[in-house]
Automatic annotation (TrEMBL):
Domain Glutamate/phenylalanine/leucine/valine/L-tryptophan dehydrogenase C-terminal: 4-63
Top-level taxon: Archaea
Single GO molecular function: homoserine dehydrogenase activity
Active site positions, chain numbering: 207
Protein source organism: Haloplanus ruber
Name of the protein this chain belongs to: homoserine dehydrogenase
Binding site for NADP(+): 9-14
GO BP terms: threonine biosynthetic process
PANTHER family for this protein: HOMOSERINE DEHYDROGENASE
Residue numbers binding NADPH: 108
EC number, as in UniProt: 1.1.1.3
């Protein structure tokens, strides 16, 4: 079944959704960036829209609000994650649900910071909220939880930030210091110019907050403020050298358990499943009847994240 998509956010993920949607049989009828929008009920031409974006800095001549008012079946929210009130992403999703449209998010803010509000809006709407892409890029983490049933998974832990993992694994492999490897990561485009969101553990914490809320119940809703978070800035190369002498390494490990949400550097055996290298992500589930389950893959990137978004769209058909 072909669905009409309105994409809010024209960064790498938004561009990839627009590019890949036809492969999945869907039509993009609206696209908005922070300053403009392009709207066409018959479907946008990706090349035309992005040629204009590259040349003029805007995707179209319409206002961003026009994308929210366009004709669509699914709102795809891929604006940057914000903390606290999770705006403007939350209001974008609210507008869609109030029109009884579906919403698919890669934006972690509304799901991590205002989960109860989001679920209340969904309960009053004919629309559905999906957010697989908010947790682990291309990795089917939330769909696996849905297939197992949240009550069958007692804990989730793992590595869900590629930037921090790249830095730590490079430090371990080459014996280099944090600042040197971070600069290398920035040169390669693995780390942002301002890497704080990643290296301080915030990004990973938001993802594990989402997992805690999905796995938990409505009596205990988590936000970032409830998480115990420590980043990797203060880890010296010598700590990784000492760990290696004992057959271990250090990774930024997140946990969502009955005790709450924690993210911080942890010692793990060098050949443990959680000792992934480079930008690779992994999540480990503790299940009631099936032991440990591991899911690993690319946790970020435009096409990778877009595949999770479009898989969510497919579940709405």
């Amino acid at each position: 079944m072909s669905l009409r998509l309105a994409v809010i956010g024209a960064g790498a993920v938004g561009r990839s959704v627009v590019d890949l949607a036809p492969e999945y049989g869907h039509t993009v009828t609206a696209l908005a960036d922070s300053r403009s929008a392009a709207v066409d009920p018959d479907g946008l031409d990706a090349a035309t829209v992005f040629d204009r974006k590259d040349a003029e800095g805007t995707v179209g001549a319409a206002d961003p609000e026009d994308a929210l008012a366009a004709e669509y079946d699914v709102l795809v929210e891929v604006t940057p994650t914000t903390l606290g009130d999770a705006e403007p992403g939350f209001s974008h999703v609210k507008a869609a649900l109030e029109r009884d449209r579906h919403a698919v998010l890669a934006n972690k803010g509304p799901v991590a910071e205002r989960y109860a509000d989001l679920m209340a809006l969904e309960a009053e709407s004919a629309g559905t909220v999906q957010f697989e892409a908010a947790v682990g890029g291309a990795i089917p983490i939330l769909s696996t939880i849905a297939d197992f049933g949240p009550g069958q998974i007692t804990a989730a832990r793992g590595v869900l930030n590629g930037t921090a993992n790249f830095v730590l694994s490079r430090m371990a492999a080459e014996g280099l210091g944090y600042e040197h490897v971070l600069a290398e990561a920035q040169d390669l485009g693995v780390a942002e110019a301002d890497p704080a969101f990643d290296v301080e553990g915030t990004d990973a914490a938001l993802k594990f907050v989402i997992l805690a809320n999905v796995l938990g119940d409505e009596d205990q809703i988590y936000s970032l403020a409830d998480a115990d978070v420590e980043g990797i800035r203060s880890i010296p190369a010598s700590a990784l050298d000492l760990a290696a002498e004992d057959g271990r390494t250090i990774r930024l490990i997140g946990e969502a358990t009955a005790d709450g949400v924690r993210v911080g550097p942890r010692l793990v055996p060098q050949h443990d499943a959680l000792a992934v290298t480079g930008t690779r992500n992994i999540v480990q589930f503790e299940t009631v009847n099936a032991g440990q389950l591991h899911l690993s893959g690319r946790g970020a990137g435009g096409p990778e994240t877009a595949t999770a978004i479009l898989s969510d769209v497919g579940r709405l058909e």
